[in-house]
Structure formats: structure tokens, C-alpha cells
């Protein structure tokens, strides 16, 4: 038995011996490292080669928001939506009545990114290797929370627009996953980015003006939207949120196979929810590696320690680190200097290897 943060006994479902044994490892499994998605710079080929080199177990299709309109998390979705597209406002993006420069640019950038990834996939010998790849998309709630209607209101304030946008996104992302699978011959993991989720649920989302209030979306309604998106996909889904705090209790009830968050955003209040996420059978993608270089260069042990202490405090056995925990940077690395971005991925991979190979041997000074 293990105990949650309140001391209640809970049946352990997380020990290594309780996990099903399969011939082929799941592409979404513990003891591996991956990135969150974004990367500094504007060179898709260089970025793809770097990501494939630094993340042996679960590399990802890189996002380069430094290229501007159509390359960021929201604008990129204009390349994927079915029968919907964006143009820009002074505040961001809005739904447009017809295709225009924004949607064309988003499609061109994404096509170039896929070409660069496919080329690097071949040159690194990944083709036919069984190596999986992760792709990212804005989640339906965050997308609707950040895109305006032609009227100027956020899409999330209009139930019909929210439904239509979510359905278009689900179909477009499913098509995208199928294309990447076909081009690379690889198993796919889909990450849905939901940084606005906490604000959507607690009613703190700001409208486009001071007079434009955005009421909270009731949790059952929000969960139905997110789960409909997940159910429409042919790949296992990781829902990631860099929000502070992340909506962990809400996400526990979702159909996602894994939940990712920045460990620096959690507190004692979140411990029960994290334990319940593990008890529910989900994987956790722990954002452990800082996105800015600390004043004192950290070792992999420094990065590993908070994850180990978290699992120990929750009362799970150490093999949980190998079977249920993925390791990531705290959030996307686009704002980060390239040198630290590379170092961050190296550290992330070293931590994941330590978790996978001998988690019981990891010891630290008393806190």
C-alpha cells in the first residue's frame, strides 16, 4: 500500500510488477525524455537534426515560433483546421471568412517543417527503426480561449463557435497525425497544449476588452470538449499545461493517457491530485529542467532530485520513475538561448536514463 498526501491508504497500481508486459514498448512510457515542443531560432532543418540527436526515445516535430505569424502555437493551427482559417488582429488571431495570407503562411511553414523532419529522419537512420515521434497541437479549450470571432469576442464565449472550432481542430489534427505517420512510418504520440485551461475553468480568462467578461466553462462541459478531441485521435494523447497551477484534478478525469506540467508550479495542495493521476493509470510528464540557465550550472542529479522527492513523498515505489514518469523541460524552449536549450535536452535525457536504469540508487541529502 502507499499513502497519499493526507495519509490515506491507496492500492498501488503503479509498481513495475503491476504493469502489463508487451512485446513492443508503448511510445508513451516512463523512463524516457521528450521536449515540450518549441525551440529557439528559425532553421527547421537544424532544429529537426538537433531534436532527433538529443532525444533518442521520443523526439518531436519542432515548433519555431521565432519565425512569426503562423509559426506559434495558435497560428500554426490555421494550417490544420478543416474549413476554418485565421487572419490577424492587433491582439492575435481571429477566424476569417476565407483563406488568406495567414493560413497560407502557416501551411507553408508546417509543410517545410515536415519536409525537414522527414529528411532528418532518413539521414539519422530513424526510418524503419521503430522510433516514435511526438507532434503537438493547441488543445481545443486553449485554442478557443485565444482566437477571436469576427465580432471581436473570444470564440470560447460562443457555444456554437466553440463546438465548430473544436470539431474542425479534431479532424485537422487527426489528418496531421495520419500524415506524419505515413511520411515517417513511425508510431505517433499527440500532445495537446492547454496553457489556458486553468483560466478557462476558474473564470480568470480576460476578454478582448475590459468590458468583455469571459465566464468560466463548467468542468463537465470542458471535459466533454477535451475528451471528444482525444477520442477522435488514433494516437495516445499527452495533455500538457504550463499554467500555474495546472488543473490536475480536472485532467485526472480526462481520457488523456499522460499529463504534463511544470514541477515548479505545483505545491502541497497538488499532491493528492498527482497521486490520483498515477493511481488512475496515467503517465506523468514532469517538467523538471529549467528553461533558463541557473546561475550555477546544474548537474543531472540536481534536475532529477525534485522528481525523486515527489515520488517518495507520495509513497510510490522508486520503479514508478522508470515505468510511469517521462522527463521534459519545464516548458517550451523557444525563448531560451540555443546553448542552454541544447544543454537542457542533454540534462533531461540524462535524468530520464537515471530514472529508467536504477531509480532505487538515487540518493540525496536530507531536504
TrEMBL record:
- Coiled-coil residues are none
Checking CDD domains in the record gives:
CIMS_like (cd03310)
Enumerate the residue ranges of region (Disordered): 1-42
Q: Which GO terms describe its biological process?
A: methionine biosynthetic process
Q: One Pfam family this chain carries?
A: Meth_synt_2
Looking up InterPro entries in the UniProt record yields: Met_Synth_C/arc, UROD/MetE-like_sf
User: What is the top-level taxon of the source organism?
Assistant: Bacteria
Domain (Cobalamin-independent methionine synthase MetE C-terminal/archaeal) spans 33-353
GO molecular function terms listed in the Swiss-Prot or TrEMBL record: 5-methyltetrahydropteroyltriglutamate-homocysteine S-methyltransferase activity; zinc ion binding
Q: What is this protein called?
A: Cobalamin-independent methionine synthase catalytic subunit
According to its UniProt entry, this protein's organism is Nocardia tenerifensis
Amino acid at each position: 500500500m502507499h499513502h497519499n498526501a493526507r495519509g490515506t491508504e491507496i492500492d498501488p497500481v503503479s509498481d513495475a510488477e503491476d504493469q502489463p508486459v508487451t512485446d513492443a514498448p508503448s511510445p508513451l512510457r516512463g523512463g524516457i525524455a521528450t521536449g515540450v515542443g518549441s525551440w529557439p531560432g528559425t532553421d527547421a532543418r537544424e532544429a529537426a537534426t538537433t531534436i532527433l540527436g538529443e532525444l533518442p526515445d521520443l523526439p518531436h516535430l519542432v515548433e519555431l515560433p521565432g519565425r512569426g505569424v503562423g509559426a506559434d502555437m495558435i497560428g500554426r493551427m490555421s494550417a490544420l483546421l478543416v474549413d476554418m482559417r485565421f487572419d490577424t488582429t492587433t491582439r492575435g488571431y481571429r477566424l476569417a471568412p476565407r483563406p488568406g495570407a495567414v493560413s497560407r503562411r502557416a501551411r507553408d511553414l508546417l509543410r517545410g517543417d515536415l519536409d525537414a523532419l522527414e529528411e532528418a529522419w532518413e539521414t539519422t537512420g530513424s526510418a524503419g527503426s521503430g522510433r516514435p515521434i511526438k507532434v503537438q497541437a493547441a488543445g481545443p479549450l486553449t485554442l478557443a480561449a485565444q482566437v477571436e470571432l469576427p465580432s471581436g469576442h473570444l470564440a470560447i464565449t460562443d457555444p456554437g463557435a466553440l463546438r465548430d472550432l473544436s470539431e474542425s481542430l479534431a479532424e485537422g489534427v487527426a489528418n496531421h497525425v495520419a500524415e506524419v505517420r505515413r511520411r515517417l512510418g513511425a508510431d505517433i504520440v499527440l500532445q495537446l497544449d492547454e496553457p489556458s485551461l486553468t483560466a478557462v475553468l476558474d473564470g480568470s480568462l480576460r476578454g478582448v476588452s475590459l468590458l468583455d467578461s469571459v465566464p468560466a466553462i463548467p468542468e463537465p462541459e470542458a471535459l466533454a470538449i477535451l475528451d471528444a478531441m482525444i477520442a477522435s485521435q488514433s494516437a495516445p494523447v499527452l495533455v500538457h499545461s504550463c499554467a500555474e497551477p495546472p488543473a490536475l484534478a480536472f485532467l485526472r478525469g480526462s481520457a488523456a493517457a499522460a499529463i504534463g506540467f511544470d514541477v515548479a508550479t505545483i505545491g502541497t495542495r497538488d499532491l493528492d491530485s498527482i497521486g490520483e493521476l498515477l493511481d488512475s493509470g496515467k503517465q506523468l510528464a514532469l517538467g523538471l529542467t529549467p528553461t533558463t540557465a541557473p546561475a550555477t550550472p546544474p548537474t543531472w542529479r540536481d534536475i532529477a532530485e525534485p522528481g525523486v522527492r515527489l515520488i517518495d513523498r507520495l509513497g510510490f515505489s522508486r520503479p514508478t520513475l522508470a515505468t510511469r514518469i517521462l522527463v521534459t523541460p519545464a516548458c517550451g524552449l523557444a525563448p531560451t538561448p540555443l546553448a542552454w536549450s541544447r544543454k537542457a535536452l542533454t540534462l533531461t535525457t540524462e535524468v530520464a536514463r537515471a530514472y529508467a536504469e536504477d531509480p532505487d540508487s538515487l540518493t540525496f541529502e536530507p531536504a
